[in-house]
Design goal:
Order of helices and strands: HHHH
Helix content: over 70%
Radius of gyration: 28 Å
Strand content: under 5%
Number of strands: 0
Amino acid sequence: MDAGNPLQQLLLRGLGTTTLVADRLRGVTQQWVSSGRLDPNQASALAEDVLRALKGETPELEEQVERNLERNREHLLQDLGVASQKEIDELRGRIDRLEQQLRRSESRES
C-alpha cells in the first residue's frame, strides 16, 4: 500500500470508520439487550439495517428519506406562503376562463 496515495488513505479511513461504527453499534445493541430494552432478534436486525445503510445498500430507506425531504420541502414552502405548482396551474386556468368571459362580454357590447 502506497502511503503517499491519498485515495488509498481515504479508502482505508472509510473502512476503518465503518468498522468502528459497526463495533460500537454491536456494543450498544448488546447493552440494550442486556438491560432488556431491546429483543435480541431486534438487535441483530437493527445492526444489519444500519450497516446496510452505511454501505448504501438500502434503496427503500433512501426512497423514504427522499419522500420525507420532499414532504418537508412542501410544508416549508407552504408555511412561507409560496404557491405550489398545482395552485399556480389552477390560477392560470381561472385567469384563462376570466379572459375568455371578458372577451365575450366585450364582443357582445360592440
